[in-house]
Amino acid sequence: MKATAVAAFGIALALGTTACGAGQISQTANQEPAVNGNLADVGSMQLRNVQIIYPDDRADEVFGNGGPFEVSFVISNIDPIEADRLVGIEAPDGGTVTIEGDTTIPAGQALEAGKPVGLLEPEDVAATDEEERITVTLDGAGDTVAPGLTTPLEFRFERAGTVTVDTPVDAGTYMVRQDQVRQAEPPHEAHVDLEGGGEGESHGEGGH
């Protein structure tokens, strides 16, 4: 009975492994990256890691003034033929979003904006890759941007249409936990009175 159960388990495991290998592409396509930003899809546009970067200088002043904040994201065009273009980004409560750079997204390629705090680049990435990132700045956002809150940003595309992304503020490595090693306290000397009566000199073995 036990051998039959083990054999059945082995067959099921083999079939599961085979199925996983056969469907690897579709499963990988559905997996979401472990990132801090939000995501959305519209038409052939896939928006990933959309976030407002925590200011690295005078953060209190920037939040108090409602900006300027840098917006970071990656937009992939999964259409194999047609290109698209990011027309603009709308912010709530009178905020304005300025985009610097070419926002055309060729078929099968991606558009990147900003650089999230703590993002590690491979050492072999050419300098031109950094220049291909566009710059997106959010200003005049009032109190709609704050750590722990999300700001609805509306992305408008020439072909795909419009999608709103609830965009969080990513504090990144600025919120790294600071661990300190605590020094152990020196042990207290214990004075044991074998005859009772509290602290006193130890009489040791073979005491009175």
Automatic annotation (TrEMBL):
Record's protein name:
Copper(I)-binding protein
- What are the UniProt keywords, alphabetically? Signal
Identify the stretch(es) annotated as Disordered.
182-208
Look up and give the organism this protein is from.
Answer: Gordonia prachuapensis
Q: Which InterPro entries match?
A: LpqE-like, PCuAC_sf
Q: Does the keyword Zinc-finger apply?
A: no
Write the signal peptide boundaries.
1-22
Q: Where are the transmembrane segments?
A: none
